[in-house]
Amino acid sequence: MTVKPDTTTAASAPRAADDAVGERLSETWPEEHGLWAWFTTVDHKKIGRRYMVTAAAYFVLAGVAALVMRTQLAGPNGDVVDPELFDQLFSLHGTAMIFLFATPMLFGFGNFLVPLMLGTRDMAFPRLNAFGYWVFAAAGILMFGSLLFEAAPNAGWFAYVPLSGSDHSPGYNLDVYTLGLLFLGVSTTAGAINFIVTALKLRAPGMSLNRVPVFVWAIVVTSFMVIFALPPLNVANAMLFLDRRFGTNFFDTAEGGDAVLWQHLFWLFGHPDVYIIVLPALGIVSAIVPTFSRRAIAAYPLIVLATVATGIISFGVWVHHMFAVGLPDLSLTFFSAASLIITVPAGIQVFCWLGTMLMGRLVLNVAMLWVLGFIVLFVLGGVTGVMFAIVPFDQQTTDSYFVVAHFHYVLFGGAVFPIIAGLFYWWPKFTGRMTSRRGGLWSFWLTFAGFNLAFFPMHISGLLGMPRRIYVYPGDTGWTVWNLLSTLGAYLLTVGLLVTLGTLVHSLRRGERATDDPWGGETLEWAATSPPKVYNLPVIPTAHSLTPMWDERSLASFTDGIADDERVLAHQHAVLRTSELDGRLEHPPLEMPEDSPLPLVVAASLFAGTLALLLGWYEGTLVLLVAVAALCWWLWPHRSPIPEDGADGGGGQT
Amino acid sequence: MNAVDMRSVSRATEPEALATERPRGRTPAWWGMVLLITTEVVLFAVLLASYFFVQFTTEGPWPPGGIRTPELRLPLIMTVLLLSSSAPMAWADRAIRRGYQGQLAAGLALALLLGAAFLTLQGIEYDTKLAEFTWTSYAYGSLFYAITGFHGFHVAAGLFMIGFTLVGTLRGRYTYERHERVRQVAFYWHAIDGLWILILSSLYLSPHV
Ligand code: HEM
């Protein structure tokens, strides 16, 4: 069992290495300033921070939409918004929270942290990474911007046909939905491929698969899920767009199409997507718990296997979103069973965390408090989730507020709480500043109380029969008091989130300077300075264990590496390459691209093309030729001083 | 063996020395291409699954509404053309790993020609098909044109990539030491060829069964 050593003398090894070689490295990995640099950077830390800030902004917008809805529903017969706007509000809220907040936020964490945790200097494809960010940002602008023209998606976040077809939903609203999500899908897929390849090829020497931090595992499993889950969504959206715009009949039952096909395709994506959101969040928890329990995570192989198993099983449960559709009984039974089974790996993870805390020495810090809050909410959401796996129960409660309560416990409790925990935990690394403990405590308790007040009563109003997605309800239903409580809770929740934001902003201005490793963390991101230099780690270390920051040999590799040109890598803009399974060093190092305007150009032209398609100005899609030209420039085989790999039997070309 | 020999032997067999002489392992770009192909294959799998889903929920004959069972002559010729284009591609890839730039260029050019011939025939095929039914003729028509059209688009993209690689070859950018790109383009091209077999079996052959 690995516990955190009490002495911290050795932990200054990375600092010593930085003092020795930092200056040389800053020449090959220079810190760029100015507008041009801002638009052209490919640094994973800047891109990661951008992802997080942008996703947070989209969270605020989607949250405001929710507040308007809650205000409308505070009492019977509310008249804050009309039904048309209400439809757009809940559809946009759901779509944005899922696609524009949760996943990009977690990709932001991944972008910043994965290369650091692996002990490398950037993502495998830095320009692709920048491209992914720009596309994501533009997709959000498209989706939220559409609200200004009353053209925001308005058929719910899963846009069932025939409601979403052109007969029942004329206007641009659902074209924004289909094209917006297709466009965003490009970014998500690119990001996923980037994470997988980075984790496979750029790990520090010695970091065999059984020494990869759980957070990185979670990001990798998530990315594999994206690779397999996004195609059904993309196909469904492309078909819906063609049906609406060009008169095809994929979903038109009168012309031999099938409306249930949409549901299958959507949920074949949709259920894995729930785990695409939750798994990295659980990964954040697995990163925080060991640090504040002062020991390595309990049952590491189990928690990794549970993560992988969740990823796989999640592809076999989609039909539980369709129990009320009228499918054959046999398929209901199968999917009901699968839905029960998937709770097992989730349960394993919970017990791994509890075990770690029990066997370690718990330090109740703000980040840890958020983690504990998460565990409570996640278990509650899990319990109602198991209830839905029972077909008769589901058929009674489907499309009621009980469902709304359930998925907010899972998504808000299961993703937003870990995200905020992660923000408090890595804030010193992200920004170089400490946050105030008092602010953190207030923010937690207000948010926790507000959250439960907002969402717990929805279980009851749901059981009392309140359907979801209604813009008014009459006064004699017995729902009034529960709705009022929900609305008050939503306001309290908002206060809590504002205090959270305030605490973080205050830290940026006034916060104490952070040391490199303020919590005594066990993974390699804590070896970098706070905030990290452009080159991340001064010396690429050798990972001798799962907890390199707690083991003397890994730490010693920082000082030993100072004299080793290969580990400092100051003479070229490159990173080390290692083998997929064992993390053995491979040659030659991998050359990294310099800053470039190409990602922005390609993303912008793709965005313009999407807009042209959306508005039906088909000649305008020719702007995509700009993207093609830029891609040619991007991929042109430029001459390079470093030979690449693959020369079978090639002679020594060093 | 004496001590000196041992030392030189161990130096020569150290991972570093070996690696310098025989670089091993897959590159990030290799993995990137494999993953891209994976997600594309899933995309086509979903399209074909949708096709069968609609077929099995349709009552009566398939194709519906008096559309004839597809003719096979032209599609089979197209198949031969497309599949045979994989051979020069594989040849080109092998050649440049030995440093033969001429063979690389010839292989690429040949693959380009065969692929272009495929696309031309697909145009002719569409011409006859469109006279019979369009993408608005039942879900069948929508699926038929969507699947073949999307594949055709991939062939076109693949041809563009081959052409791009050919230009690079003529500029002497691919050598014995630098030729990864060729391999990736070849991968992509083989994947497109393989997908065509699935499409042929599903859209053209299966209605005959
Ligand atoms: C900021 C606090 C939040 C509040 C006050 C809130 C409130 C609401 C409300 C009132 C609805 C509409 C229910 C209905 O009319 O049927 C809703 C729907 C929804 N929310 Fe939230 N929510 C919050 C955060 C989140 C988060 C963080 C996520 C996901 C990561 C999320 C995902 C959804 C989804 C998917 C829907 C369903 C939309 C639809 O019916 O199509 N929400 N939420």
From TrEMBL, chain A:
<keyword id="KW-0186">Copper</keyword>
<feature type="transmembrane region" description="Helical">
    <location>
        <begin position="480"/>
        <end position="505"/>
    </location>
</feature>
<dbReference type="GO" id="GO:0004129">
    <property type="term" value="F:cytochrome-c oxidase activity"/>
</dbReference>
<keyword id="KW-0560">Oxidoreductase</keyword>
<dbReference type="GO" id="GO:0016491">
    <property type="term" value="F:oxidoreductase activity"/>
</dbReference>
<feature type="transmembrane region" description="Helical">
    <location>
        <begin position="51"/>
        <end position="69"/>
    </location>
</feature>
<feature type="transmembrane region" description="Helical">
    <location>
        <begin position="130"/>
        <end position="149"/>
    </location>
</feature>
<dbReference type="InterPro" id="IPR000883">
    <property type="entry name" value="Cyt_C_Oxase_1"/>
</dbReference>
<feature type="transmembrane region" description="Helical">
    <location>
        <begin position="620"/>
        <end position="636"/>
    </location>
</feature>
<feature type="domain" description="Cytochrome oxidase subunit I profile">
    <location>
        <begin position="32"/>
        <end position="544"/>
    </location>
</feature>
<keyword id="KW-0472">Membrane</keyword>
<feature type="transmembrane region" description="Helical">
    <location>
        <begin position="299"/>
        <end position="320"/>
    </location>
</feature>
<dbReference type="InterPro" id="IPR023615">
    <property type="entry name" value="Cyt_c_Oxase_su1_BS"/>
</dbReference>
<feature type="transmembrane region" description="Helical">
    <location>
        <begin position="89"/>
        <end position="118"/>
    </location>
</feature>
<dbReference type="InterPro" id="IPR036927">
    <property type="entry name" value="Cyt_c_oxase-like_su1_sf"/>
</dbReference>
<feature type="transmembrane region" description="Helical">
    <location>
        <begin position="332"/>
        <end position="354"/>
    </location>
</feature>
<keyword id="KW-0408">Iron</keyword>
<keyword id="KW-1003">Cell membrane</keyword>
<keyword id="KW-1133">Transmembrane helix</keyword>
<dbReference type="GO" id="GO:0022904">
    <property type="term" value="P:respiratory electron transport chain"/>
</dbReference>
<feature type="region of interest" description="Disordered">
    <location>
        <begin position="1"/>
        <end position="22"/>
    </location>
</feature>
<comment type="pathway">
    <text>Energy metabolism; oxidative phosphorylation.</text>
</comment>
TrEMBL record, chain B:
<dbReference type="GO" id="GO:0005886">
    <property type="term" value="C:plasma membrane"/>
</dbReference>
<feature type="transmembrane region" description="Helical">
    <location>
        <begin position="74"/>
        <end position="92"/>
    </location>
</feature>
<protein>
    <recommendedName>
        <fullName>cytochrome-c oxidase</fullName>
        <ecNumber>7.1.1.9</ecNumber>
    </recommendedName>
</protein>
<dbReference type="GO" id="GO:0004129">
    <property type="term" value="F:cytochrome-c oxidase activity"/>
</dbReference>
<feature type="transmembrane region" description="Helical">
    <location>
        <begin position="187"/>
        <end position="205"/>
    </location>
</feature>
<feature type="domain" description="Heme-copper oxidase subunit III family profile">
    <location>
        <begin position="31"/>
        <end position="208"/>
    </location>
</feature>
<dbReference type="InterPro" id="IPR000298">
    <property type="entry name" value="Cyt_c_oxidase-like_su3"/>
</dbReference>
<dbReference type="InterPro" id="IPR035973">
    <property type="entry name" value="Cyt_c_oxidase_su3-like_sf"/>
</dbReference>
<keyword id="KW-0812">Transmembrane</keyword>
<feature type="transmembrane region" description="Helical">
    <location>
        <begin position="30"/>
        <end position="54"/>
    </location>
</feature>
<feature type="transmembrane region" description="Helical">
    <location>
        <begin position="144"/>
        <end position="167"/>
    </location>
</feature>
<dbReference type="InterPro" id="IPR024791">
    <property type="entry name" value="Cyt_c/ubiquinol_Oxase_su3"/>
</dbReference>
<feature type="transmembrane region" description="Helical">
    <location>
        <begin position="104"/>
        <end position="124"/>
    </location>
</feature>
<dbReference type="Pfam" id="PF00510">
    <property type="entry name" value="COX3"/>
</dbReference>
<keyword id="KW-1003">Cell membrane</keyword>
<keyword id="KW-1133">Transmembrane helix</keyword>
<feature type="region of interest" description="Disordered">
    <location>
        <begin position="1"/>
        <end position="20"/>
    </location>
</feature>
<comment type="similarity">
    <text>Belongs to the cytochrome c oxidase subunit 3 family.</text>
</comment>
<dbReference type="InterPro" id="IPR013833">
    <property type="entry name" value="Cyt_c_oxidase_su3_a-hlx"/>
</dbReference>
<dbReference type="GO" id="GO:0019646">
    <property type="term" value="P:aerobic electron transport chain"/>
</dbReference>
<keyword id="KW-0472">Membrane</keyword>
